[in-house]
Amino acid sequence: xxxxxxxxxxxxAQCGQYxxxxxxxxxxxxxxxxxxxxxxxxxxxxxxxTPSTLRYADPAVFAGxxxxxxxxxxxPVALHLDHGNSVELVAQALAAGYTSVMIDGSALPFxxxxxxxxxxxxxxxxxxxxxxxxGRVGGKEDDLVANADANTDPKQAAEFVRCxxxxxxxxxxxxxxxxxxxxxxxxxxxxxxxxxxxxxxLVLHGASGLTDADVRDCIARGxxxxxxxxELRAAYAEGVRQAxxxxxxxxxxxxxxxxxxxxxxxxxxxxxxxxxxxxS
Length: 280
Fold this sequence. Notes:
Elements: H1 6-16, E1 20-24, H2 28-41, E2 45-49, H3 51-56, H4 59-72, E3 77-84, H5 87-96, E4 100-103, H6 110-124, E5 130-134, E6 138-141, E7 144-146, H7 154-164, E8 168-171, E9 176-177, H8 188-197, E10 202-204, H9 212-220, E11 223-228, H10 230-246, H11 253-276
Helix pairs in contact: 2-4, 2-11, 4-5, 5-6, 6-7, 7-8, 10-11
């Protein structure tokens, strides 16, 4: 089926008390693996690209590849711009065929974040849903570096959504991008407080490396979209390394790609099933 909007996908998750897995992909093979996992589980899925990925190949390339794969799939697939860093990039993604976008002004003061997000929402004009972010997710994602010490304020979250018209909200509760150097301490009570005053779907960034129990608890407290990135890159790389260990003379890119795909698909299936579990 054609690429679908993420808006109804996330509203359905909110109503059904589960979360949609959102997976960052870097190439055709990772996209094939994630969509293959979605077909095997029968679950809707979001594929995402960041600004650095779109410097590697522009939005039209990824939209073309993923659009074709989605058209051949039997499950709903959305294509999302993750951590969009400008309204111009949002416009490029929209023109290329992306069906969901994020504008990330979380590094800005509150008023400037509101202004940037509102500008992106107006530029999109309702054609696709817009994800905003308030509070900082720690670690490094793309060109963004943050310390996990600026969690989302619930009162500001309510005002942010009201003033911007964002369709979903990424929140900071102590997660971090990349792998964790030590066990993260998540402010889950804050997440519950945000859910009580914000009615749009909530998004959890920095899920790579969280325990299954933590992910399930966050979903139970209102998270409707869970992002996975670093773990997928590591899985792909380890698949390629294993193939080369087994056959150091291997040089066929297709066989290397297949090895990476297998690892990514296995991981994606596990994460999709984790997100699909009903809240207890």
